[in-house]
Each structure stands twice: as structure tokens, then as C-alpha cells.
Amino acid sequence: MILSKLSLKNFKKYKEFDIEFYDGLTGIIGKNGSGKSTIFEAILFALYGELKEKGSKDIIKNVTANSKDELSVLLEFEFEDLNYKILREFRGKNLTATAKLYKNEKLLVTGVKDVTRHIINLTKMTKDAFLNTLFASQKELTSLSSLDNEHRKMMIRRLLGLEKIDQIEKYLKQSITDLNRDIKSFSSFLLSIEQVDEFETNINKHLESLEILKEKIELRQKQKEQLVVQEGISKEKLSSFEKIREQKFDFKNRIKLQESKLETVLKNINELSYEKKHLETKKVEYESKKHLKIEYEKLQNSIKQQDNLKEKYLKKVGLIKERDELRLAYKKQKNDIKALEEEIKDIDFIEKKQKELKSTLELYQKQLQDKKIEERELRDKIAGEKNLINDTKSKIEMIQSLGKNSKCPTCTRELLDDYDKVLESLYKLIHNNYEKNILTYESKLEDLMKRVDKKQEEYDKVIIEEKKIHSKLNILNERKKDLLKCKNYLSDIETRGKSNNDAIEKLQNYIYDEKLHQELIIKFQNLKTEYEYLIALETQLKSFNKVIDSLQEAKDNKSVLSLQLEQLKNEELKIVYDENTHMLLKKELEEIVRKKDDLTELLHNKKLQESKINGEINSIKNRLKENEQQKIKLQTKIEDLNDYTKLKLSMAEFKTNINSKIAPKISSIASDMYSKITKGKYQFIEVSNDFDFYIYDDGKKYPIQRFSGGEVDLANLVLRIAISKTLTELNGSSQVGFLAFDEVFGSQDESRRLEILEAFHTIKEQYRQIFLISHETEIKEMFERLIEL
């Protein structure tokens, strides 16, 4: 992989930033906080969609960016002579993530996870492997020699990815322990040979008892079947007697019912005869008074005619009154319309004035909003400068508290003679840069606030004027609505007036005599009582013919019922029923049922006993079956234990084999570089299988801690490069062609720095691009290419 170009938008401290990468040794130089390390964080983010340390998406976005502004990282690189391009973005308030991967300008993959998966397959490195192989910091280099044996070993194994072997080995040990525990537990639950024999003997005894019990059940079952046959015969005889008795009782009940019907018919004949005689008397009375009905109906029709005339007369009077009211209302509406038209004559002019004021308000509002944005940007800049002052003051206090022997807070080298220079440069940075910038920003802010106040005053005046116009326009619009209502009402009055005149014209010919009307009503009321009595008589006489028919029907029914009653009595005498024989049959059946029930209960008890024995047999068989299953599980656990033990031994052998290959490889690469850097003073660096470091001096082996700080820093550097080289080969990532080191010069003097740069020149054959990050501006002349921030 060769880096080509990086473009950032709203990523961390960069609002917008573009950088091109070239082959060779490149220095990335800038002051603390200038964003040097951010460049490689962006590269990592572009490739894997994550930073070195996972965190909130809000941390990634530039603090000055608006919620609608997008965050984007575009990385272009070469891989196996092909051009690739990755674009990752966060969009919207929720920072929704998107990703696209292009190959030779053609879209290859989309989607955050799919792009990351494709990069891992392409480079054959995960995010952690990529970091451990291609990036190194001064802190990491120092840790190689300063950590104790155990932690150094853990760190190097993590860099090389060997901690996975340790995790597998740990898992195998725990699994073997768990299997031994399970085998012991399973063995404790197995039955002994004596217990198995005892269980089998008990099963045989239970089977013998079960055979005897089955013979007894079979005998009792046959006896019960005989009783069931006897029960059926007795029930059949008893059923025959029951039917005869039911027939006897049925005829007796039918005779009683027939006698009751005949009695009811005789009573009905007497009642109908009396009612017939009464209706004949009423009929004579009705004939003498029926002329009153004709007279009453004539009076009723005359009153209806008078009621109709009265209704027409009252309607005409009401219409005349309504006509007078409509004339008054018409005159009033005409006057109201004239007044309202005069009142709203200026409404168009006022509406035009309101539109002009609203346009002015929108313009002022936009101007104020722009100034608010400008104000927020100035305040953010002031806050940013104050934060830089606080950070610088913290560094000053830390250096002062440690004294002249303290280390540079960025590169970790000892300050010594540079102590006062460092403090002075930090104070100058505060006074000449940060505080000066704050004064400039505050002056701009003060001038801006004056302009904002003036514009706000103009805006408030226009708002007051617009509110007055708006209020007046609301009143006129209400008057306009009232005018429309008045015109509609006037039209309604004209329509109603025309309809009213037509209705009065139609009712002119109707004449009503109230005196005649009252006389007819009095006469009608006097005749009403006699008329109602006559109608009642008429209603009663309507049933006369029906009563005659009902009387004849009752007499006919009496003859039929008498004949039927006589026939029922004769048939009832023919049925023969012996109650004593019937009772003896009942007792015989009860005795058979009792014996059958006793046998049923006995059989039930025997079957319960049989079920109990079967249950005991099944229980013993289940216990023996569980014992066999437990044996199988135990055997499986034993086989698993053997497999895990073999795997553990193989893993230990594999681990020893890997260590024996990796350590010599790192030693070879590191020794080569260290010899060149030290001009042959130190010929060999040895890395043991346990990752302890030794330097050979005059043919003798010494621990790395014996040597001075500068020599140790150089040794750490070549060891870290050797580890990266070895890790690249382990990952099979031979196409990854760059390295990046952050603040690796440490406490080296100028000659050592040159030696380090020479060392990096020696590995340019393996890495086309090498990037060195540093805050020390005095070394920028030492690089082939320079990126200055």
C-alpha cells in the first residue's frame, strides 16, 4: 500500500485540509496541537471506520461545524499497481455513517461494514495489526526497554499478534481443568456392579409377582362377564314391565285430561248462552238511537271547515305583520352597507403598506442572523485561544515543578540547558500569539455588538409599526366581512318580501266567522257523549254473530269429547299389569348389580397393584438406562480430555517453534540496522525467545539497560522497525509499503539524529514511504520531503 492523497472536511481540528504523499523519507513537522498525528488518525479512520481509541462520533467532528455540515475523509492509495479511493462520511444531525470504495475510479463496494471488510481482505490486516505494523510512537519505543520483563513480553506479543496463542493456551488449560472436574463428578454417580445385579434380581421378582396377579385378574374378569350377561337379561324383563306400567298410567292420565276438557266445554256453553241473551237486548237499544250518529258526523265536518278558514285567516294576518317588519329591515341594511363601504375604502393601500414592512423585517432578520453567526465564530475563536493558554500554562507549571532535569512534554528528552529556553518560548507563545489573538478577536466582537444593537433597534421600530398596521388591517377585514353579510342579508330580504306579497294575495278571498264557529263547537260537545255510547254499543254488537257460532261449536265439541272419554275407559280396562311381580324383578336386578360392582372394585384394586409393580420395574429400568447414559457421557469426557491434552502439547510445541523463528528474525534485522547507525561500534542485538534484549559490545553480551539513554533510544528504534518488518511478513502483507513514526528522535543530539535518518534511508528498499512526525522545527532540513503544519 502506497499513500497518494488525503482530503479532510470537518475532521477533528481540520475544517478543510488536503495533503499529497510522495515516495521517500518525509518529515511532518509542526508545533504541538498543529494536527500532525491527526493526519494518521484520519488515514486509520478512512481504512477501518474507527479511530485508534473508540469513542463518540461527536468527538470526531470539528467543533466549529454546524449540525448540518457533513464530515468527510477521502483517502487515495495504490495497491498492487491499482488505484483505490475510500470515502467515509457522517451526515445530518444524527451523524449517519456512509462509506464507498473505488477501484480505478469505478465504484467497487458501498456500506460501512462492507468497505471495512473489503480493506481487511485486501491488506490482510485488521485495524490492530495495521496499527502495530505501520505506526510507532516515542512512548512505545521507550516501553521496549523500560518495562519489566513480564509487561515487555506482553507488549511485544501483542504487537506481533501472538497473544492469541496465549489465549488459546489459557483456554485449553481451563478446559482440561473443567473436564477433570466433570469426569470426577460423573464417576461419583455411576452404579456399582453389585447395585446393578441387585436391580436385575428385583426386576425378576417383580415379574413373577406380576404373572400370578394377572391370573387372578383374568379369573375375576370372567366372573364379572357372567354377571353382566345376567344383568342384561333382568334389565330386559324389567323394561317390559316398565312399558306396561307406563301404558296403564298413560291411559289414566288421558282419561283425567278428557274429563277436564269436557267440564270446561260445559262451563263455556253456559257462559255463551248468557252473553247471547245480553247482546239481543243491546241490539234493540242501538236501533232506537242510531240516527244520532249521522247528525254527529255532519257537525264534525262543519267544524273542520271552520278550523281551516281560521288557519288561513291567521296566516294572512301574520304575513301582513312580517311584510311591515321586512320593509324596516330593508331600509336599515341599505344604510349599514353605505357606512361600511365608506369605512373600508383605504384597505388596499394598507395591505400594500403591510407587505412592504414584512419585506423590511425579513431583510433585518437575515442581517441579524448573519451577525449572530459571526459573533458565535468570534467567541469560539476566543475560547479556543484561552484553552491553548491554559494548556501551555499547565505545561509550564509541570516543567517548573520537575526542574531542569525534567523531560520535554512532547518528545520526552531531558531539557537540561534548554530548560529556560523552553519556558521562554512557552511564555512568548502565550503573550505574542494567544493573548494578541484574543485582543484582536475581542475588538472585532465589540465593534460587531455595536452594529448588532443598532440594527436590533431599527428592527424593533419596524416591528412596532407593522403590528399597528396589522391590527388596523384586521379591523378593516372584519368590516369587509360585515359588508358581505349585509349585502347577502339585503338580498335575502328582497327575496322574502316578494314571496310574502305573493302569499298575501293568495289568501285575500278567505272569510272567517268566529261566532258561527263557536256555536258549532258547543253543539258538537253536547252530542259527543251520546255518540260515544252509541259507538260502544256498535262495537259490542259486532261480536253477536261470533257468540252464536261459538255456542254451536261448543255444543258439537261436547258430543265428541263424551264419545272419546267412553272409548278411553274401555281401552284402559284391557291393559293387565302385576305390580308385585314388577317389584320382585327390581330386587333381583339390584342384587346382580351389587355383585358386579364388588367384582369391579376388586378388579380395580388388582390392576392398581399391577400398575404399581410395573412402575417399580420401569423405575429400576430407567435407573439402569441412566447409568448406561452416564457411562457414555463419561467416556466422551475422557476422550475430550485426551484431545485437549494433545492440543495443549501441540500448542506449546507450536509456540516454542514460532518464538524460535521470530526472535532470530527480529535480532537479524535489528542488528543490521544498529551496526550501520553506530558505525560498527555495536555489531549485534540479540532478542531471546522470551523477548529479553541484549547488546553485544566487544564480543560480550550485555542487558540493554546497561547502556546510555541515546544508545538505548537507537536500540529501541531499530527493534521496533524489526518488529514491524517481521509482523508484515507474518501477516503476508508484503504490499504495504509505508511506515510512520511519531516523535522518535527523543533525546538524540544532532549527530544521532543524522544517524537515525541514515538508518531510515537504509530501509527504503523495503518501504517506499517513511513518515517521521516531530515538533522540533530545527530538523526540517534533514528530510528529502517536508510537510510543515
From TrEMBL:
SUPFAM superfamilies: P-loop containing nucleoside triphosphate hydrolases, Rad50 coiled-coil Zn hook. GO terms for molecular function: ATP hydrolysis activity. One of its GO terms (biological process) is double-strand break repair. Keywords: Coiled coil. Residues 5-224 form the Rad50/SbcC-type AAA domain. Transmembrane segments: none annotated. InterPro entries: P-loop_NTPase (IPR027417), Rad50/SbcC_AAA (IPR038729). This is Chromosome segregation protein SMC.
